[in-house]
TrEMBL record:
Name by which UniProt lists this protein: Cytochrome d ubiquinol oxidase subunit II
EC numbers: 1.10.3.-
Species assigned in the record: Glaciibacter psychrotolerans
Keyword Transcription in record: no
Residues spanning the membrane: 6-36, 82-102, 114-137, 157-183, 195-215, 221-240, 247-269, 297-320
Any single GO BP term: aerobic electron transport chain
Alphabetical list of InterPro entries matching this protein: Cyt-d_oxidase_su2
Molecular function, one GO term: metal ion binding
UniProt subcellular location: Cell membrane
Gene Ontology, cellular component aspect: cytochrome complex; plasma membrane
Family under the similarity heading: Belongs to the cytochrome ubiquinol oxidase subunit 2 family.
Alphabetized UniProt keyword annotations: Cell membrane, Electron transport, Heme, Iron, Membrane, Metal-binding, Oxidoreductase, Transmembrane, Transmembrane helix, Transport
Topology in the lipid bilayer: Multi-pass membrane protein
Amino acid sequence: MDLSTLWFWLIAALFVGYFVLDGFDFGVGMSLPFLAKDDTDRRVMINTIGPVWDLNETWLIVAGAALFAAFPEWYATMFSGFYLALLLILLALIARGVSFEYRHQRPESRWKAWFDGMIIVGSAVPALLWGVAFANVVRGVPLDADHNYIGTFFDLLNPYALLGGVTTLLLFFTHGALFLALKADGDIRVRARRLAIKSGVITILVAASFLVWTTFAYGSIASALLSAGAAVALIVSFLANLRGKEGWAFALMAATIALAVLSLFASLIPDVMPASNDVANSLTIANASSSPYTLTVMSWTALIAMPLILAYQGWTYWVFRKRVTRSHIEAAAH
């Protein structure tokens, strides 16, 4: 495997980390109106992700930086062509982050309700638009000979891409509900399990439709196998949740998201961004990558830095491993 192909899969792994980790953050945010009965419930839900949400978001920063350094042509084409969609994602992430920090600054219920609404929208918009963006990358977009996107924003809102967006929205929503069942206690834990069962049925149907469409229209043998693995993991996660096995259900949902993302990347090879109008204009792993020297320096940097990052993140999750309960919130209020 040459360095450009290696970095293609390393970037895939970084996006897997981002979608698995920030995915349940999105799900918790979107679950607020469905699970919280009062402000204490909302604080319990937010506190389950409070110590880790910003750390989870750094995976997106690292993935974007790696994409810029390893595949500058791909980065330039995608970020210019998907500019409005990515801007909406960025604004939503900013609104969500601000809300986490400011909702508790004043006691008025209207103040908190305003920021809770920003958390919900700031979680739902990225969950939807990331699926739309990646589905368009797999489907292909119109590119000129200089690899510039020549379509419009509304060209990105095609049926396949919208189905991809709904799929990621539902996967993250269910992922977040399972995380709450794992991290919260009391009534929220029970309600989160029930919500994950209800959303899980819809998620299985929608995700299966998207994966089948991807496999038959754009897939390869490798992507088909990964898609099949994702489907099996999703179904077993649903069954584990039915049996009250919260840890297994959450882990298998994480595996579902990871395998689904890897299947999308596998369906691209040897391209990184297919041109829907002329295959000669497609960006490939070969013509979009940086020089071998750049990739070599990046490889050594990643070899040193990634174990440290993973160790720190693992330690953080270990420190905050206990369940969050209403009694913790009520005790902190006095």
